[in-house]
Amino acid sequence: MAPVFEYAxxxxxxxxxxxxxxxxxxxxxxxxxxxxxxxxxxxxxSTEEVLSEVAEAGEADVDRAxxxxxxxxxxxxxxPGAERAKYxxxxxxxxxxxxxxxxxLETLDNGKPIRETRDADLPLVAAHFFYYAGWADKLDHAGxxxxxxxxxxAGQVIPWNFPLxxxxxxxxxxxxxxxxxxxxxxxxxxxxxxxxxxxxxxxxLPKGVVNIVTGDGRAGAALIAHPDVNKVAxxxxxxxxxxxxxxxxxxxxxxxxxxxxxxxxxxFDDAPIDxxxxxxxxxxxxxxxxxxxxxxxxxxxxxxxxxxxxxxKRRLGTLRLGDPLDKNTDIGAINSAxxxxxxxxxxxxxxxxxxxxxxxxxxxPSSGYWFAPTLFTNVTQAxxxxxxxxxxxxxxxxxxxxxxxxxxxxxxxxxxxxxxxxTEKGSRILSVANKLRAGVIWSNTFNKFDxxxxxxxxxxxxxxxxxxxxxxxxxxDV
Amino acid sequence: MLPxxxxxxxxTTDALRPTTAGTxxxxxxxxxxxxxxxSRYARxxxxxxxxxxxxPAAHGLADVTASDSTLRRFLHxxxxxxxxxxxxxxxxxxxxxxxxxAKAYALDLAISMVDLTTLxxxxxxxxxxxxxxxxxxxxxxxxxxxxxxxxxxxPDMVPAAKAAVAGSGVKVASVATAFPAGRxxxxxxxxxxxxxVEAGADEVDMVIDRxxxxxxxxxxxxxxITAVREACGTAARLKVIFETGELxxxxxxxxxxxxxxxxxxxxIKTSTGKVAVNATPxxxxxxxEAVRDFRAQTGVQVGVKPAGGIRTAKDAIKFLVLVNExxxxxxxxxxxxxxxxxxxxxxxxxxxxxxxxxxxSGPDYVTVD
Amino acid sequence: MSERLSVFKTYxxxxxxxxxxxxxxxxxxxxxxxxxxxxxAPLSSRKDARDAxxxxxxxxxxxxxxTAYxxxxxxxxxxxxxxxxxxQYVAEVAGAEGLSKSKAAAQVDAAIDRWVWYAGWTDKIAxxxxxxxxxxxxxxxxxxxxxxxxVAVLAPQDSSFLxxxxxxxxxxxxxxxxxVVASERHPLPALSLGEVxxxxxxxxxxxxxxxxxxxxxxxxxxAHQDVNAIDLAGAGEELAKELETAAADNLKxxxxxxxxxxxxxxxxxxxxRMTAFLETKTVWHPTGALxxxxxxx
Lengths: 478, 369, 297
What we know:
The structure holds three protein chains of three kinds.
Chain A: E1 22-23, E2 25-27, E3 30-32, E4 39-43, E5 50-55, H1 59-78, H2 81-97, H3 99-110, H4 114-135, E6 153-157, H5 163-176, E7 180-184, H6 191-203, E8 210-212, H7 217-225, E9 231-235, H8 238-248, E10 254-258, E11 264-267, H9 273-285, E12 297-301, H10 305-316, E13 320-321, H11 337-352, E14 356-358, E15 374-377, H12 384-387, E16 394-400, H13 403-411, E17 418-422, H14 426-435, E18 440-443, E19 462-463, H15 470-473
Parallel strand pairs in A: 1-5, 6-7, 6-9, 7-8, 9-10, 11-12, 11-17, 12-16, 15-16, 17-18
Antiparallel strand pairs in A: 2-3, 4-5, 10-19, 14-15
Helix pairs in contact in A: 1-7, 2-4, 2-6, 3-4, 4-5, 9-10
Chain B: E1 2-3, H1 32-46, H2 68-76, H3 83-93, H4 100-112, E2 114-117, H5 125-136, E3 150-153, H6 158-165, E4 171-176, H7 186-198, E5 203-207, H8 210-214, H9 218-232, E6 237-241, H10 244-247, H11 250-262, E7 267-269, H12 281-298, E8 303-305, H13 313-327, E9 339-341, H14 344-357
Parallel strand pairs in B: 2-3, 2-9, 3-4, 4-5, 5-6, 6-7, 7-8
Helix pairs in contact in B: 3-12, 4-13, 4-14, 5-6, 7-9, 11-12, 12-13
Chain C: E1 27-31, E2 37-42, H1 46-65, H2 68-84, H3 86-97, H4 101-121, H5 125-129, E3 131-132, E4 139-147, E5 150-154, H6 162-173, E6 177-181, H7 188-197, E7 207-210, H8 214-223, E8 229-231, H9 237-247, E9 253-255, H10 272-275, E10 278-286
Parallel strand pairs in C: 5-6, 5-8, 6-7, 8-9
Antiparallel strand pairs in C: 1-2, 3-4, 4-10
Helix pairs in contact in C: 1-8, 2-4, 3-4, 4-6, 8-9
């Protein structure tokens, strides 16, 4: 009998996904090489293994994709809503059928644990298509007046942290409302979008309704600046979001932005401590903290600080970091060398500025991009780690004495995406939630998502909402 | 897979184990870090605790039991439990995938933790003898299969059970205190306990007075447990059954856990198996948190026994994952964790055979009793 | 007996509930449609804009925290006070826009009615734009609109009063506070509105009114890091683009110049001017079972 309960490796099979050695751009229903023949490689962040070679779209390709979307728009938008709905329902069902394959693919390309792609990403992707499918023939009842019209061609640029889920958040409402789309996935995670192109093929979606152009920031910029794009939707960093807002200034393009955050997770002394610890862990270590709405600032009432930190540290000691395909892995790889460098630099700066750094003893794999779960204590509002979005598994711990002080500190940021409140006192939940300037507030829970629930930020976290009835507005001419 | 091990709060292996409340030596932190941890917990509870005035209790929380009101204040001052969060955590741990060597380890560990139970009106010495034989050698075709931890019977069946397991190391546990309802006078309950102990029971599984608990008479419940504890003497370990299905809320289960531990329970146990809701992942997780926190505060380790409703090897392994990732490896031993079950054993054995032979077993290849 | 010499009015800014002159000490000449001198109006500077933002920010907490019913009553009070001074506004609008008395009266009446319309919206918009979301889990999930914050409002250039009211009322109805840049050529009705607001129980700072060169005042407002949104109704195409670009620095919500129904602001508005300056806040609360009975593997 082994001395301790060591979980044997339990890897999900890679055999369920068949990645081709190369992929083209998906334009007008066909895969095609880039006009200038350029390609780039996409790697598995946990091993640095090259997964595939993907076409790199240039301006000419983006132009062709927008043209295809424009051409498809007339028929697609004229289709009865009930017919558009059925296409989306088909897509939702095919995603459910292929969810194991897509979960493995996403884990390979992104580096996040299979536990998350299997239990969070993929179910949410399918649910999102299922939800918006139902709206397609009910837009008259959505509160935007009778017969609200689509905008036209939507140019959508998405990040690498939830590649397929962000695609769903963008494409499902766009198609339901009768728009056609050109979507650019992130440079480091192009594969699931290309598999989605195949799902569109299986669903019989008319050509040109969905176009996928892979590439780097230049392809995204070309898409956003394209004069025949009517709608721009972007999820990503606040810096790029501002650039995009400048680009579309003075045009008639409708813009929605879902940007960064520095979410405060506020723990009061009467919190359900064990569940708060789970919420803190989920808040900052879900997806290696590479989440715009991460609870990256822990605001804990001084009277329970030591007790909570003890519990939190003990809990972090049970996190399992390693092979993302292992079903027991809690913490996977950082998505890219570039992101790892950013996290490392900010954490080092936190240390240099005098915050106290702590990580559980943790052996990192020798290849791939890895960062140990990290806590900073003795952090004040003035520390860089309390102000800048790190987008990694790094939690800054601050304290407060009174609810007023908690709210003041939570709001003391240019961001306003998410916040958490932990207390057993119902009236305190409601009063604090009222005063927080953030778009999504989780009370006694964290990082919960649902297609019916509007998501989006205040202040520099962006504008517009994705999800729910509110999410339709971004794609309607209202 | 590289499990992360905490660098400052590693699991302890120091023996914190008292056999009975009467012999507790109090909290002796193993290291300075641990001392710091305990003192922080103590600080939290200091608000609720005044300095002891009577003989110091081993766990250092004597004064919280000084009166009904101090006890109430203490129990109601414990952190609340969020239902959704607790159940989500239990469900999440239920997704751990335990394969190959880990599964082999877990199956044997689970078998060794079974309190093989028969608590029927129709029990006879013959039935109990068969149960005892099964407990001692669960798989007659495979001598490497471990024995179960104990057999669990009614007090009048203790002699038959003792005889059946004699010399094997398998313990005899007896339910007592007017099991399962517990609706009898204290005198009757204590007589029940004494009969079991005198007949040689190694362990006594008592039920608390749920009526008193729900009516808020915490001190009455406490006094009953301490009286039973005393009746057990040094010979028998005491398992305290809360009947969590009747306590209804998680807050109550957390309070009952602390109440039982304060009163000297060696084990806290979910259920009798006689009501609609018995052991669940969530209530067991909650009790594991309680024993973990109690040891952190007092240095006293208490065992946990989920009972009723655990029927498959798959479920049992998930409970072991709860133990492993909540209380920690110190509890991964049948001295500290038990399954109150009957049909579970055969499924564990069939899974064990499957693992050994590579083919699925069937009910004809394990013994019915 | 000689004809009585009338008393001229000194038009002042309305900032933080007070009536200051421009910090710059400058004024500019306001004329009627035929070029006849009407009055001098303060020529606001960047510093006036800055002071107005400070006042608006200071007022935001109280105004956004007031009950919707209370805000509705105050907006209705504005209508009541305007009704009492109807003749004054008719004269000012007629003078400014060169309208006949009856046409000017129609504008003023419509403006008064618009306050009434928005007074009724304050406690209804949340029910129309918010609501419960049926999430697939044991959570009670509620979305509700909240005011964006401090909104810079460039009032329409042509419709000096009805246009002004049509852009200011929806902003403050929902709990925002406003820094309003009056029509550059016709600022007098806007400056007079300040006098009504000051006597309508509207807390000081909720609406701040500046007159002067739109481009000059709007630029620092569009760039101001403590302004949350900007309504470009009164900006021409080129200025609008410039301001929208500057507004990107802190990701202000921007309402671009919209085509106006009927061109004279007389049509009943929709909710768009309110929703443009609302944030949706979604709050999740666990529900779960009453007891510990659920969940097994």
